[in-house]
Predict the structure.
Amino acid sequence: MAGSVIDVTDETFDAEVLKCDVPVMVDMWAPWCGPCRMVSPTVDELAHENGSKVKACKLNVDDCPETAGKFGISAIPTVLFFKDGQEVENMRMVGVQPKTVYQQALAKLIGGE
């Protein structure tokens, strides 16, 4: 659904993220993580502002250790960007970033740069 953030799990990650036909931003987080709670509203805003051009997802690393391990998540929050079923190299962001930094990454994916 355009403009909203989708919660993904180990079971739904492939279908929702890897098989998606638009770029995907995935927020790796946990409920006990203070910085994660700072990133969450930003991800929500970006999902709304970018509409159907991108998909925004959140994955709780405590509930989904398989996917977190597959992508080597060792610190949270970590935001990953996917295009055509692959994580985009050199775009992984660890820690809280300004909204503009996330938007610039999305713009590159949308524009195909």
Notes: The first helix runs from residue 13 to 18. The helical segments are 13-18, 34-50, 65-70, 99-111.
